[in-house]
Design brief:
Order of helices and strands: EHEHHHEHEHHEHEHEHEHEHEHEHEHHH
Largest sheet: 6 strands, parallel
Number of strands: 12
CATH class of the largest domain: Alpha Beta
CATH architecture of the largest domain: 3-Layer(aba) Sandwich
CATH topology of the largest domain: Rossmann fold
Number of helices: 17
Strand content: 5-15%
Shape: globular
CATH superfamily of the largest domain: Glycogen Phosphorylase B
Distance between the termini: 22 Å
Number of domains: 2
Strand order of the largest sheet: 2-1-3-4-5-6
Radius of gyration: 21 Å
Mean pLDDT: 91
Low-confidence stretches: 45-51
Structural class: alpha/beta
């Protein structure tokens, strides 16, 4: 099939990986993919993608102006998509949902081409809660309209589907499709020996986190409990993989708490290097997650066969079973997280058994990018309401 992939993202952090992986999966299945977007697709994995013009505008301009700019993008989006549709004659459009971006659905309806809209977050709800929306009523109406008039909207979790349905999107227009992984890169056979040598981890119990260091990701909570873990087991190390706005604050906090010698900050790493770093971990942690998300790192931890510690909340329970394929703690409960960690750090057998259950779960459910691409092709082939 000829696929037109449309995005309005900065291609930074996890969103860039997501864009790259699903495009790669379509291509590996033999489909042709043309990418349409303002940010150059080749800038993926470049820090400039996340810190360039669009990232600067999001931070600096007033919310009202940014809302107008996001609406104004539709003129550009419709032009770019229409030009590609005329020249390429795609079989369908695949679009990563962005706030106020109705250009894909408009072009889909004008040219009567199916459009699959991938929804990773209820952006109206999210941005309103963060106080980053000035024209709320427009964002609310457009979120409902876009998801309702797409051929299908793909929600990454059942919780997200429920939110969209509560906004008035018909249930039959939404397919739940969790994120995926590339089993060729993320699997238990990947070695972490060299990483353990490089960072002086040796035979330590290694607790790790991979992600973008933002205030709402809960990374600081891990540092808060490390002192107690060290007193319970002197040979514990934290492996912190990533970068972000609070990186320097976390480094300083580790020094202030007197735990600097037990923490290894790697900084930002190319995505292709992440598997060997996860392989170096004994316990992989997701300290916090939005209530509607399907965290990619949790799936990558599962693919690597790691013992996972994550918050006990409905969306996480969609992929992890407590005390079977992972250990879940009460969200924001530092004491409960500490207790879970203390249970695990001295029990290597429990770590390994839980990790293998996690790998079995992600494999049996075929939570891969290629599996997701295959499901999308089936949805389009079934001819589900090209335009409604």
């Amino acid at each position: 099939m000829e696929i037109l992939y449309h995005h309005r993202t900065q291609l930074g952090d996890a969103q860039g990986v997501h864009v790259h992986e699903i495009i790669k999966a379509f291509r590996e299945l033999g489909h042709q993919v043309r990418v349409v977007g303002l940010v150059n697709y080749q800038s993926l994995n470049s820090k400039s993608a996340a810190t360039g013009l669009w990232g600067l505008l999001r931070k600096k301009v007033p919310h009202f102006i940014y809302d107008l700019m996001s609406l104004g993008y539709n003129v550009i989006g419709i032009f770019m998509l229409a030009r590609s549709v005329i020249h390429e004659r795609p079989d369908f459009i695949y679009e990563r949902y962005a706030l106020n971006n109705f250009s894909g659905v408009v072009v889909s309806r004008l040219w009567k081409i199916p459009i699959i809209v991938e929804v990773n977050a209820p952006l109206y709800v999210e941005q309103a809660e963060l106080g980053q929306l000035a024209i709320k009523w427009v964002a609310r109406i457009l979120e409902k309209w876009i998801c309702s008039h797409a051929t299908q909207a793909l929600a990454v979790s059942g919780v997200l589907k429920e939110i969209l349905v509560s906004q008035g999107v018909p249930s039959h227009k939404i397919t739940v499709m969790p994120n995926g992984i590339d089993f060729g890169n993320f699997n238990p056979d990947v070695s972490g020996v060299e990483v353990r040598k490089q960072y002086g981890l040796k035979d330590s119990v290694v607790i790790g986190f991979v992600g973008w260091f933002r205030p709402w990701h809960g990374v600081e909570m891990l540092l808060d409990i490390l002192q107690d873990l060290l007193s319970a087991n002197k040979d514990v190390k934290f492996l912190m993989i990533g970068d972000g706005p609070i990186y320097d604050e976390l480094v300083q906090k580790a020094k202030d708490l007197g735990i600097w010698d037990a923490v290894r900050f790697t900084g930002s790493l190319p995505h292709e290097k992440i598997p060997s770093y996860i392989a170096a971990m004994d316990i992989a942690v997701q300290p916090r997650a939005p209530r509607y998300a399907c965290p990619m790192k949790v799936l990558e931890y599962m693919g690597m066969g790691k013992c996972i510690v994550a918050p006990f909340q409905p969306n996480i329970c969609e992929v992890l079973e407590d005390k079977i394929s992972g250990f879940l703690f009460l969200p924001e409960d530092k004491n409960n997280l500490r207790q879970v960690m203390l249970t695990l750090i001295n029990n290597k057998k429990l770590q390994e058994e839980t990790g293998m259950q996690a790998f079995s779960a992600v494999q049996s459910r075929k939570l891969s990018w290629k599996g997701n691409a295959e499901k999308v092709i089936i949805l389009v082939s079934q001819g589900k309401e090209y335009c409604s």
